[in-house]
Amino acid sequence: MPNTSPHDQQAPPSRRELNKAATRQAITDAALELLRTKGPGNFTVEDIADAAGISRRTFFNYFSSTDAALASIVHGFLDTAIQQFRLRPAEEPMLESAQAALSALADPEAVAPLAELFTLTQQSPLMAHSELEAWDHCRAQVFAVARERLAGTPGGQDELYVHALAGSIISCGKAAMEVWFSRRGPDLTTGSLTELRQLLIDSIALLGTGFAPPASPSAVRSS
């Protein structure tokens, strides 16, 4: 049966919450556009605030730095994946749920923000801190959802188990990104994003099998 955690029973967001989400998204979009047009290290908090149509003070209500704003580019993808994960049956093995959640993101464009941020960080050492913040956020979110799923089980009571599981999932995600970039470089076409999505799914599958050698190469390259 589907997972019926408290998250599934939450009331719809209020107008205030929707407005805050819209402001956060406007800041993220402005930061990404400035990154594309000006390049890493060539714009400030003030530039982002101006582009988003907000004050500098409002910016700091949402983010602590330009790095934090750029790292938030991946939040939408992660939030959607976690939402899909929470729809999976509570009794389903966690790694199977993770694979199914990624598979449910049928549109390869869903991984585009993740792919673009990773691509930009590989092209400039100035982006290293943004990449680190993004992965740290992912790790914290995966840890939280793992603890939620494992609550009441022996594994859920073991801090090392939950931390190791979350860290392993993130490491698999990083490995998938690195393999994808080595094959595709800065290619953000639909075919390339489809391959990235499959690599992410395959990396979780490897974790689930205890890294048994695959019978065939991962994610055949698509055009």
- Number of helices in the DSSP assignment: 10
What is the rounded distance between the termini? 38 Å
Order of helix and strand elements from N to C terminus? HHHHHHHHHH
Number of discrete domains: 2
| Poorly predicted ranges | none
Structural class: mainly alpha
What is the beta-strand fraction? under 5%
Shape annotation: globular
CATH topology of the largest domain: Tetracycline Repressor, domain 2
Radius of gyration: 18 Å
Mean pLDDT: 86
Question: What does the main sheet amount to?
Answer: none
Which CATH architecture of the largest domain? Answer: Orthogonal Bundle
The CATH C-level class name of the largest domain: Mainly Alpha
Query: What's the total number of strands?
Result: 0
Helix content: 55-70%
In words, what does this structure look like?
- With 223 residues, the protein is mostly helical.
- The protein has two domains: 6-70, Arc Repressor Mutant, subunit A (Orthogonal Bundle), CATH 1.10.10; 73-208, Tetracycline Repressor, domain 2, CATH 1.10.357.
- It has ten helices and no strands.
- The protein has helices spanning 15-38, 45-52, 56-62, 66-71, 75-86, 94-103, 112-123, 128-150, 159-184, 190-208.
- Helix 8 crosses helix 9.
- It is globular.
